[in-house]
Design a protein that fits this description.
Blueprint lengths: L2 E2 L3 E7 L2 E7 L22 E3 L3 E3 L9 E8 L2 E14 L3 E9 L11 E4 L10 E3 L5 E5 L3 E11 L3 E12 L2
C-alpha cells in the first residue's frame, strides 16, 4: 500500500501504475490525531452555543428555549447546562433539557434538575449538566436547550450553554 485517495487505498502494481485495492465506504470520516479541532463533518467535530445569557427572564412554569445549535446530518452526542439566577424571586425548582422540538422537554426523561429552594432576593441556584443525549440526524436540524423554572415573584434569568460532539 502506497497511499490513500478519496476513493480507497492505493497499491502500486508496477512502474507508475496504481490500483485501488478496496473502496472507502460511503460516509467514512476520520477524526483528528492531534490536539486540534476535528474539521466539520469529521468524527469529533465539536459545536457549542457559547455561554448564552437568557437575561430577559423566563415566564414562571413555562418551558422556554434558552439556547440552540444547528447540527448537520450525522450521529451526535448533545448535552448542556444552566445556571438559574433569581432576582427578587422565591424559586423552588429549575429544569433544563435538550430537545428536537422547540420549547418542549424531551420524552426520554434525560433532564438536569435542580432541587434548590431560594428565598426572595436570593442570588442563584445551579442546575447540573443534562445527561448526554444521542441524536441521529438525516439533515441539518436545530437542537434546543429548554429551561423551566418555578418561582413566586420577581424574575429568573438563565446563563446556559449547549454542546455537541459528532460521534460518527
Amino acid at each position: 500500500i502506497t497511499g490513500c485517495s478519496a476513493t480507497g487505498f492505493l497499491l502500486r502494481t508496477g512502474e507508475g501504475a496504481y490500483a485501488i485495492i478496496f473502496p472507502i465506504l460511503s460516509g467514512f470520516v476520520a477524526g483528528t490525531a492531534t490536539n486540534d479541532d476535528a474539521a466539520a463533518g469529521f468524527v469529533g467535530q465539536f459545536i457549542d452555543s457559547g455561554i448564552v445569557n437568557f437575561g430577559s427572564g423566563i415566564a414562571n412554569h413555562t418551558a422556554t428555549n434558552i439556547a440552540s445549535i444547528s447540527l448537520t446530518a450525522g450521529d451526535w452526542d448533545v448535552t448542556g447546562g444552566a445556571l438559574f439566577v433569581a432576582s427578587g424571586a422565591a424559586m423552588t425548582s429549575g429544569v433544563v433539557g435538550v430537545s428536537l422540538v422547540s420549547a418542549t422537554f424531551p420524552a426520554n426523561g434525560s433532564l438536569g434538575k435542580s432541587g434548590m429552594s431560594t428565598t426572595a432576593g436570593a442570588a442563584m441556584g445551579f442546575v447540573d449538566n443534562v445527561a448526554t443525549n444521542r441524536f441521529s440526524l438525516s439533515g441539518t436540524t436545530t437542537i434546543y436547550l429548554v429551561g423551566f423554572a418555578d418561582f413566586s415573584s420577581g424574575t429568573v434569568n438563565i446563563d446556559c450553554q449547549i454542546f455537541a460532539r459528532r460521534a460518527r
